[in-house]
Amino acid sequence: MTPAKTSPLPRLTVSQNHRFLTTIDGKPFFWMADTAWQLVHALTREEVDLYLTNRASKGFNVVQTVAIAEHGGLRENAYGHRPFLDNDPAHPDTRAADDYWNHMDYVIQRAEEQGLYVGLLPTWGVHVTKDYHDGIVNGVFTTENAEAYGRFIGQRYREASNIIWILGGDRDAPTDTSKAVWWAMARGIAIGVTGREDYSDILMTYHPAGVGTSADFFHNDEWLDFNGVQSSHGVLIKSDKVVGQTYVRTPVKPVIDLETSYAEIMMGKQTEPVTDDMARRSAYWAVFAGGCGHTYGHTSIWQMFAPNGKRTRGMAGATTPWPKALDAPSAAQMGHLRKLMESLPFVTRIPDQSIITSDTGKQGDHLLATRDQEGTYAMVYSPTGGAFSLNTSWMTGSKWKAWWFNPRDGKANAIGDVPRSVEQKYSPPTQGEVQDWVLVIADSNLAFPAEEH
């Protein structure tokens, strides 16, 4: 067995206030992930390079993928290799000189070279429990082999500092037996990485079924460093609700929407696909509601859809070949969101609807506000360009400046100096269904790069 080489990327940890992620040397880390569930199983190495290069260029810093994928994960990958002997997770197949796990090594190493962290699911949840919600353990994983597999994969990637471990995989864990399997896998990973059951040197979360939150099953467990939620799919996903409900749980832990409304997805009773604007709106709602980052998705990319391809089936409305979908407008717009958040001291940021003194709107018009606890800035997201009134009397300093940030192109329109006021009305530059804007007000003594976009 050949473990992945040491990564120069710093390991990630939870911030001191338990609301955000930072590097181990204290640098704030805003999670901006892409969903690539079938990446490891479906793509060749040349295709892996195409995907990772594109995602790094778009401003993503995390890629979420799966070692044992949902679709065909127990069968041959793009090179004809299987992960296990006789489909037994306790016996990974490492007989060949270039086997299934060598390809996994390649993905992780190439991601690191592109400056990307890997949110790695050791397995998709269907291989533990087939139903999304009932928690009946009826897959190939059991408590016994889950720990053995966890030790294997943890030891293999113990030196890969760009891995964030994500258990689950679109499955709830409401039963003791299902919880026991995930506990065993977490324990195995910890032992594989550190040589003992020590979770302090690894970062781990859980990806539940939608709409759902890991807090419902594992919030108090020592291996769960931050909560993962799934706001799920559709044309009007209120990601702020599930993020906000998880944000207020105690003890305090960071929260990220790990799966939300994929661009172009068509599911269930939908009569129209999700647009780029809807996917973007879900991202801003989730982050402004308290998320310490966000995970974007496109229905053609998570499955690596290719027309007439041998490894994909065109599920959930996929019609765009995945290489073309890489350049969907909403993908680049995730980079704009990351730049906006990183231009401000976001580790002290909190959600705060109380600063909006007018009606916050309903459905697709719902306004969200976030601000700095230190009183240095405030931001309000207006998804359709609706006007609103804002209380800034709590802000520190003697002078403030403001600008409108455009989530569609990442540019900012300066407003100039603004007063500190109990109630001041603001009207975005344009209005309409796809005319979302962010108002940013900041202490004039602070220099924020967002002004220069």
Automatic annotation (TrEMBL):
Gene3D superfamilies registered for this protein in UniProt: Glycosidases
Organism source for this protein? Neorhodopirellula lusitana
Checking SUPFAM superfamilies in the record gives: (Trans)glycosidases (SSF51445)
Could you tell me the superkingdom of the organism this chain comes from?
Bacteria
Q: Name one Pfam family in it.
A: Collagen_bind_2
- InterPro entries per the UniProt record, alphabetical: Apiosidase-like_cat_dom, Collagen-bd_put, GH
Residues in coiled coil: none
Q: Where is the Putative collagen-binding domain?
A: 350-441
What is the designated name of this protein?
Answer: Collagen-binding domain of a collagenase
| Domain Apiosidase-like catalytic per the UniProt entry, residue ranges | 15-347
Indicate the transmembrane segments per the record: none
